[in-house]
Amino acid sequence: MSGRVLVVDDEVEMQRALRTGLGYHDFDVRAVGSGEAAIREAAGWRPDVILLDLGLPGMDGLAALRALRPHTRAAVIVVSVMPGERDKVQALDAGADDYVVKPFGTEELVARIRAVLRRQADVTAGEPVIRSGELEIDLARRHVAVGGRTVRLTPTEYELLRYLALHAGKPVSHTTLLRQVWGDYAVGDKYNTRYVVAQIRKKLGDDPANPSYVVNEPGVGYRLRTD
Amino acid sequence: MTTRRLAPYAIAITGAIAITGAIWLVNDIGSVSGLSAFYILFVLWLGARWGRGPAVVGSVAAFLLYDFYFVPPVGTFTVRGPAELLELVVLLAVALVTSQLAASWRRAQASAEAIASDSRALYELATAMLRTQEAAAALTMVCDSALRMRGVERFAVVAISSGQAPLVAGSILAEDELNQARWSYERGQQVGLSVKDGTLVPMKMHGPGSGVGYFPLVGGVAVLKLGEPRPEASDLRMLAALIGLADLLLDRRRASVEAERARGLQASDSLKAAILSSLSHELKSPIAALRAGLTALTTPRAGLQEEHRELLTDMDRQAARLDRMVGELLALSRLEAGVDLTREPHSFADVVGGTLGQLRAEVKDRKVVLHVSDDLPLVDVDEMQVGRLIFNLVENAVEWAPADGAIEIGARAMDGSLEAWVENDGPAIPPTDLENVFDTFWTRRTAGTGLGLAICKRVVEAHGGTIRAENRRRGPRFTFTLPFAAVPAAGGAQGAQTKG
């Protein structure tokens, strides 16, 4: 699988390293150094994946992401040297698909790029049944099963699992889950999502310390495993 | 001096003569009985105004003049009959009683005036002190007022604060006096004087350096030497009040020093956080470019020879190690700068699961045994910090456990807190080192940073827990405690089940 990758990073060394490294993995790579240039390239060149550094000079990465999102269907992977959880959550809520903490190795980055491209393909295919290991979520029939055995979920539990399934493999923040499942008034009460996820895990027979399906993304939210 | 002292007596005698003359003139016009009462009035006035001596002299003079001019036989000093004698006694008694009364009244007035002037002086001093920002200058004002008093030979206040040279206001002190002051302060022991019922009580002293008294205060000592003439009672009260003022001043000084120190710390904390934040960016960006560049070339498609690829892989491993060290140093600095924890109720199992997810690559080929029940009560922790704690302990276990050995992670509910552990099958820690493993920069490996376990200890202690290392039969175990969340889960996981 190959694709077009737009690298947005103000460091020339980083641009050159990624052009070379991703090029060896059959990606078509272009690199720009600012948010404004990224918006131009996104519209003109139509990349499949945008690697967006959050610490850009001038228009910062988060502002660039908010400006980009309405104009591109590209998957956005946010890159940052500051592993602050708030930055990750803000980026995810602004429409990022994943985040990678600098420094990273090329192999790790390639794996993340492939994962978001695969997810994108699944979503466009409009697959009605989402699978994660033994878990099957049939969105059309609102039916959930583990290893063929039907699991009965409450409407809230189903909504939460459905939202994770629709974004399978992508970390979803607590705030997004709260807004999607309970509506705007619930935002701020992370405890709700933790409680519901605990109930879902119990019904799925999932061990939180070693989860097969719903994975905790520390400080951020939850993710439905696809690997 | 002598003239002034004799003047009242002259007045007494002259007055008695004048009254006699006046009565004589009135008698000339027509006899009026009871005119001798004027003498009594005069003696009353003498007693009240001038005291006993002039009053007695005046009453004797009045009696003699009256007897000579008006008592028959006129022109002689004869005393005939008890009536005349009684007259003399009455005059003398009036003189004595009134002068006595007047004297005690004058004394009361004098002491009231002294108190009024003392409090006026204290009030003025206190207001001046409040206007003086510098505590040292205010202390000097107190000492100066004390030194202006009669009978005060020396007066000094020594301000003592830890880590600073003592500050002396007032009289200059000798070295041994300073030492004595410090001793008195440290013991809280009065030497040579005490303050009782608002007045200073000097005590008899013997031996060398005697005569100097030491009185410990909140942040220092008052040093005092009385001289001749001995101070009066009012002066001793004033001295006690001045020592009280010095006490207040030292307290104020200490409070302002503490406030200043707190301000300084706060400023340096936010400065530290800002520096750390920009430092982590500055240090990690070059490492990021290094790793991206090195790993770009290690893929076979780059077409490098095997030995060159290995060389690049080694270099990338070193760059990754550098990244780790920078990360740990920054994490430790943040913890030491006193970052605020974001504490929320968390399921410990959930935190373990999230952290193991981050360590996927490291534990992929390892046997990880979990004894962490989901039914444990929630813990009140900062998820990221506790995640780092588990991360470091598991990473340490991966490092030490043999390739086919097991890593065990367990947790159980204890009284009021969660006790969790991470154990591996690796070699035992030498018993002498069990205490040191959490020290900063202590490491068993030549390539270790010595920061991983130090971070663990800081994280646990920031949560009010404890951490210890011990050798179990299978291998080293690290055990730590975390506080339970106060609010129980809403109908959720509550059974304090233990497992493992």
What does this structure look like?
- The complex is a heterodimer of chains A (227) and B (500).
- The two termini of chain A are 17 Å apart.
- In chain A, α2 packs parallel to α3 (61-68), α6 packs across α7 (174-182) and α6 crosses α8 (190-204).
- Chain A is globular, with a radius of gyration of 18 Å.
- Chain A is built from eight helices and twelve strands.
- Chain A has 227 residues and is an alpha/beta fold.
- Chain A folds into two domains: 4-124, Rossmann fold, CATH 3.40.50.2300; 127-224, Orthogonal Bundle (Arc Repressor Mutant, subunit A), CATH 1.10.10.10.
- Chain B folds into four domains: 2-110, no CATH class; 132-258, GAF domain (Beta-Lactamase, 2-Layer Sandwich), CATH 3.30.450; 269-334; 341-483, Histidine kinase-like ATPase, C-terminal domain (Heat Shock Protein 90, 2-Layer Sandwich).
- A five-stranded mixed sheet of chain B has the order 8-10-11-13-12. Chain B has a four-stranded antiparallel sheet with strand order 2-1-6-5, sandwiched between helices. A two-stranded antiparallel sheet of chain B has the order 3-4.
- The radius of gyration of chain B is 46 Å and the shape is rod-shaped.
- The CATH superfamily of the largest domain in chain A is known as Response regulator
Order of helices and strands of chain B: HHHHHEEHEEEEHHEHHEEHEEHEE
Q: Which radius of gyration of chain A do the C-alpha atoms yield?
A: 18 Å
The largest sheet of chain B has its strands arranged as 8-10-11-13-12
| Quaternary structure of the protein | heterodimer
Tally of individual helices of chain A? 8
N→C terminal distance of chain A: 17 Å
- Radius of gyration of chain B from the CA trace? 46 Å
CATH class of the largest domain in chain B: Alpha Beta
In the CATH hierarchy, the architecture of the largest domain in chain B is 2-Layer Sandwich
Strand content of chain B: 5-15%
Question: Largest beta sheet of chain A: what is the strand line-up?
Answer: 2-1-3-4-5
